[in-house]
Design brief:
Blueprint lengths: L1 H10 L3 E3 H8 L4 H13 L8 H17 L9 H4 L2 E3 H21 L11 H20 L6 H17 L2 H29 L1
Antiparallel strand pairs: 1-2
Length: 192
């Protein structure tokens, strides 16, 4: 997936659109799109203002379409025309190569019941919840990267039919919820 995006980025002049990236990934499956948004949220791009919200919108639309049972995803034209600087994208793709290659070695079909049938509905609902919470995460720099790890794990799990990654994603979300639940009352007490 990263190689396909890099090919597109090398062919563009100075800016690469979201549509260019999605065309490289393919529009037939939701899993690569979840993987892509998660990967981009884990990258330093998540520090760009409004970038996590843009990714949240993509995840929201993908999740809703998964729940509706669509076979191909659709995104609005204005979102597809959003751009990223080519050089920054290429640097990030290079930065992601090593961790992605390491993870790829450990993927295999396991606990496949967690990535098929009714389990995919639960994954879509969870991704929808993440998307709804993500704009608020922009208030804390790079906090959306934690959500990105969970989204990436869900996407990888669906692509590789690896239910262990679904469990990892749920563990990450549980940890994220525990941190938010623990931090918010503390912050409220500190401001009062």
């Amino acid at each position: 997936m990263l190689e396909q995006i890099a090919i597109v980025a090398h062919n563009e002049h100075t800016l690469v659109t979201v549509g260019d990236i999605l065309e490289a990934v393919g529009t037939r499956s939701f899993a690569p799109l979840l993987m892509l948004t998660g990967t981009l949220l884990v990258s330093p791009l998540s520090g760009i203002p409004l970038f996590p919200s843009m990714m949240a919108l993509i995840v929201l639309l993908v999740s809703l379409q998964m729940l509706a049972g669509r076979r191909h995803f659709w995104l609005p034209r204005w979102l597809l025309q959003r751009t990223l600087p080519r050089q920054k994208l290429l640097r990030i793709l290079e930065w992601l190569q090593t961790p992605c290659a390491t993870i790829d070695r450990y993927l295999q079909p396991r606990l496949t019941y967690l990535v098929r049938g009714p389990s995919t509905v639960l994954i879509a609902l969870t991704c929808l919840a993440i998307a709804v919470m993500m704009p608020a995460m922009e208030l804390v720099l790079f906090s959306s990267s934690i959500a990105g790890v969970a989204l990436c794990a869900f996407g990888l799990a669906l692509v590789a039919h690896d239910g262990v990654l679904v469990l990892v994603a749920y563990a990450i979300i549980t940890l994220m919820a525990a941190v938010v639940a623990g931090v918010l009352p503390w912050e409220a007490a500190g401001t009062g």
